[in-house]
Structure formats: C-alpha cells, structure tokens
Amino acid sequence: MGCPASAQRPDIAIDTSEESADIGRAVHEALAWLIEEDAHRPVSGANEADLFGISAKHGAPDGDVKMLAWAGWKMWKQIDESLTDIQLEQSMEVTSKRGYRLTGTADVMALMSGRPDTLVIFDWKSGRRESNPFDQLKGYALMGSMLRPAISRAIVSVGWLRTGMIESHSFSLDDMTAFDIELSEALTSSSPVFKPSAETCLFCPRKADCPGRRQIVASAGLDMAAASGESANAMTPAALGALWPRSRMLKKVLEDYEDAVRIAVMDAGGRMDCDCGTLAFVESSRSTIFWNQDVLAPYIAPEVMQRLRPTIGNGQLKDAIGESAPNGLKGKRIKEALGALDAAGCIEEKTFPKLQFTAKS
User: Which candidate, 131, 231, 246, 310, has a CA 20 to 30 Å from the CA of 83?
Assistant: First the structure.
C-alpha cells in the first residue's frame, strides 16, 4: 500500500536466501507441523527431533528455530480452543470486482467458535518489528471475506515470537470495503507511483531494480555528505531532521550491500579478489568479562564499587580499577585485576570471522 508501483512483477530475479528468511520459513513450517500434530496427540518436548529436521531442511540455526517455534506454540495454546474450521498456510487468490488481483498465504485462518460470521487471521512474525504488518493482514481478511460471503467481521492478530506479544485488530465489513476501494485506487492507476521508504522497501521484491529507490538513495547520499562535518553546522535543525527518514533508507541499503558482499566472499571460499584489492575473512576475537565482585574487591575501593553495576562495560571497569589504584600503579593494577578475573574463569574469549579489505599497493 505504501508504494503502489511495486505491485508490478520485477524484471530481474531477487535472491531471498538469507539467514533471517531461512529462519522464518523453518519456524512457519515448524508451527504448522506442531498444530497439525496436536490434533492427533499431545505435543511435548519429545518432538524436538522433528523440529531439528525442519531446521536442517531450511538450513536455519536449530536453536533459533526451536526457541521461536515453542514461543509460537505457547501463543497458539492461548487461542486454539476459541477457534473452529482451522486452516493452516492457507493460500488465497481473488480478483476484486474493482479490477485488481490479490494473492497471499495466511499462516492461520479460522472462524470464531459460535460466531460463523467472524473470520480470524493469525500471522507469526519471527523477526524483529521493522514495519507495520497490518495492511498485509487486512488484505488477508479482505480475501477471506470475498471467499466467504457470510463474513461480516475479521479479527487479525500478529504473534511477535521474539517478544511473546500478541497484537490484534478488529475490522468490520465496512472497514474491509473501504480497504477494497483504497487498494483499487492504488493498484489500478494508469501511472502508479514509486514511494520508496525504509519501511515500504524492507521486503519488496522489486527493491533491487526500483528506479524510485535508486533515485532517493542517490539524493540521500549527497544530502548526508552535505550534513556531515562543519557544513552540518550551517543547516537548520528542521533541515537536519528532515533528512532522518532518508538516512534510515541509506543505512538499510548499506546493510544489504554488506550482507551481499559477505555472502559473495563466503561463496568464493573466504577470499575474493577485485580490481582495487582483496576481500577476505580473517579470524578475529572478542573478550567478554563476567562480573565477579569477590575477585574485583581487592582492586576496586568500596565507595567506587557501590557506584558500579554488574552490566558495566570493559572501559568502565578499567576506569574503576584505575580510580582505586595508588598513584603510578594504574596500569599494573588493571593488568593484575584482569589476570585474576581470567584465572577465575570470568573472561571468555570468542573467535569469529571478520571481513577485511586489503587495497592493492
């Protein structure tokens, strides 16, 4: 709805193979399986082997899939007894009398028990909230009402699996008719308009070849450059604030680019040469220091310790040790304290691949 022209099919293929998409597909299949399975026998932790198989099928991290699937299962058990005529992964396709076609797949579509005129749509979201999903769900409700003329009301819900929250909205038949008109005006226009934004472009299949997105990204880059350094001081607060929405889009474009580079380097075996240099994964490490007041007590004065929290950063910890150290012994005391934490098993070293660029000399 935010960008009518994106309803046209893309001219180039779009690669959707990324970890977040793999997790989403695996979690949706896992939840459909759990709900189907529950119709025949109680579901319990004994089914984790089956969930592992689903994770492996989609190449998704098993821990994430299990955590999100069981979170969705708990949500489902809050609502399943109030539903009847339950349909899972329900694909729909309708052509409106107003001249446009809608397609989509609802995760769960059902009727309210005792209320055959009330349609219930439930959608699982395995990612973090980055956009408003309710136009999508209102579209499902509209399709459901077109396919079931007896429907006069729809309740649409989103289950945010990472937070455990369920968000719901109710739409009357008048609401759905108004949405039908709104869609018709947007989708049947003889000159649909591209309206790129960080939110509307997030999952759009046309974003890679979208002329509107390319134009706004190019102008955003120039404006961001003008807003950096000393030149930013000459801009009014209103002008700086007006750049914020486009800066979010530019940030997302850069993130997508960096993800694409990482995938390309991985596909090339961990090293990729280009005209200007070499991109390669190198092993890097990160230290995590766990709070241990007993170990730190000899190195931090009691009055300083009282101001600290167990979640302080490494820099704050070193500052506290330095503040408590005798004159001239700051560096030595920090080294001793870190050695004591390491000996007590309070420092965890993790290695990870880091992408590094080396320019040609």
Answer: 131
Tokens 């597909």, located at residue: 25
Is the Cα torsion angle 10, 15, 21, 23 positive or negative in sign? Answer: positive
Per-residue pLDDT of 38-83, as tens digits, reads 655 555 544 566 777 888 887 788 888 888 888 898 888 888 889 9
Compute the Cα dihedral for 206, 209, 210, 215 and give only its sign.
positive
- Show Cβ contacts of residue 24 under 8 Å, excluding neighbours closer than 6 positions: 126, 127
Give CA–CA dist 40/68, Å, rounded: 22
**CB within 8 Å of 229: residues ≥ 6 apart:** none
Q: How far is CA 188 from the centre of its chain?
A: 31
**Which residues, other chains included, contact 335 with Cβ-Cβ below 8 Å and sequence gap of 6+?**
none
What's the rounded Cα separation, in Å, for the pair 184 and 7?
12
Residue among 59, 13, 15, 12 at smallest CA distance from 264: 15
Closest to 103 measured CA to CA, from 9, 21, 17 = 9
Q: How far apart are CA 215 and CA 76, in angstroms?
A: 44
At which residue do the structure tokens 């136009």 appear? 135
The list of the chain residues with pLDDT below 70 reads 1-20, 38-49, 129-131, 189-209, 212, 226-235, 310-311
83: nearest Cα among 42, 116, 124, 43:
116
pTM for this model (two decimals): 0.53
Distance between CA 131 and CA 82 in Å, rounded?
29
Measure the CA–CA gap between 353 and 9, rounded to whole angstroms: 37
pLDDT tens-digit profile of 196-214?
665 666 656 666 667 767 7
CA angle (214 as vertex; 209, 218 as ends), nearest 5: 160
